[in-house]
Amino acid sequence: MNFDFSDLTIASAQAAMERGDYTSEALVSALIARIAEKDAEIGAYLTVDEGYALDQARAADAARAEGRQGPLLGIPIGIKDLLNVEGQPCTCASRILEGYASPYDATAVARLRDAGVVFLGRTNMDEFAMGSSTENSAFRVTRNPADTERVPGGSSGGSAAAVAAGEAMATLGTDTGGSIRQPAAFCGCVGLKPTYGRVSRYGLTAFASSLDQIGPMTRTVRDSAILLGAMAGQDPMDSTSLDVPVPDYCAALTTDLTGVRLGLPREYFVDGMDAGVLARINEAVEICRKLGATIVDVSLPHTEYAIAVYYVVATAEASANLARFDGVRYGLRAEGATDPIDMYGKTRAQGFGPEVKRRVILGTYVLSGGYYDAYYLKAQKVRTLIRGDFEKAFEQCDAILTPTTPTPAFKVGENINDPLKMYLNDVFTATANLAGIPALSVPCPVAGSELPVGLQILGPAFGEELVLRVGHAYQSKVEEGN
């Protein structure tokens, strides 16, 4: 059976399977064939377990034949390689976890499994989610389907590329400082970072525990709403997940923004931004205005400190979290060590890549004696100021519009030897993680050979309904031709 993967969404595929147009097994088989055709060039996946995926699809088809229904029943998705799926590898794209297989499901994965989702395979990423280009994977470089000479963004670059290349109906990514939204913008798909505490982090291999969030990457905002609704909710296995009601996100999707106040923060429209990105965002703002939204100017005055704060907090937490990878309990163990300390050193030297080593060293430094107060404690105080900026801004507006990234995707190898330039890719995204608020990247329409550009929509804590509503209204208007 032939499938047009260019516009196949979760919603449309589910409707087709309910009509009996095709089965989940047929859809999964077609996607496996698509991956075989395309992924040697794109490199979105680290592993694809064809037999496992087909078995899940057949089980979904059997459940449907018995009368079961659901928006995700039989839908195939890819999983970023730091989320645990029972029996599957979970390498975090690192040599230090080669050979490790997950003994359990992450809570988000378990909830999707209960909803009937089919897990296709493990998507590539920057090692331990540390990077903005998916060039830091220990196993392969992922390329942007829009232009294979360019990066797909990171760290969830494999997840974004799989969606953009038609190699998955949707994927899961994680977002610590923009790792869902930036690759979504670079590849031209939708990426959602939920509020911190909305989706359980249990089973997510931690990079920075106070920043990490699991979220969907899809073709449409509606599909992201479907996935979020299935994953969200308190989890007793994660003390940071909050007992907040989970609304019907799809019911909130409308194409009318009348009465919605959308803020434009002057700090996000800076000198040096790519002219094409600025033009697309200005067009997006006008589309939202035509949909009935009121556009207001707001200020987020501590934005300029966000990157410095982020790379202090994130590296400090990474230093603590990655201490567990020592060669003792699982994964790689270096040979030839003379004592435990020697084994730790050799294992970590062999197992971690250069970017992970750089961040662990930075984090260890800012947590060390005499520097904790000067760096980590001060960063946390400024983080509080950044959160306060958003709280004040949301007194004046309901949601905020910004570019997702200051530039389109850059070329493979262009920034790999310039860590500071690479870190600045998070300049518009890290603030949402520091503040713990939801943020959505929606693709802007581009013409001809123009590279994908993302519109970022920021909302108050647990304001996913509004963020998704704005994104859906904008995307719907774009699709009907403004």
Q: Helix and strand layout, with pairings?
A:
Elements lengths: L9 H10 L4 H19 L2 E4 L1 H16 L10 E5 L26 H8 L3 E6 L33 H8 L5 E6 L5 H7 L2 E4 L19 E6 L2 H11 L29 E5 L9 H16 L3 E5 L7 H16 L18 H12 L2 H14 L4 H22 L5 E5 L15 H5 L6 H6 L3 E6 L8 E6 L5 H16 L3
Parallel strand pairs: 2-3, 2-4, 7-8, 7-9
Antiparallel strand pairs: 1-3, 4-6, 5-6, 5-10, 9-11, 10-11
Helix pairs in contact: 2-3, 5-6, 7-15, 9-11, 9-12
Polypeptide structure, described:
- There is one protein chain.
- With 482 residues, the protein is of the alpha/beta class.
- Among the domains are: 10-254, Alpha-Beta Complex (Amidase signature (AS) enzymes); 304-379, no CATH class.
- 39% of the residues lie in helices and 12% in strands.
- The chain has 15 helices and 11 strands.
- Strands 1-3-2-4-6-5-10-11-9-7-8 form an 11-stranded mixed β-sheet, sandwiched between helices.
- Strand 10 (439-444) and strand 11 (453-458) form a beta hairpin.
- Helix 2 packs antiparallel against helix 3 and helix 7 (221-231) runs antiparallel to helix 15.
- The model has no long low-confidence stretch (mean pLDDT 96).
In short:
The chain is α/β, with parallel strands linked by helices. It is about 40% helix and about 10% strand.
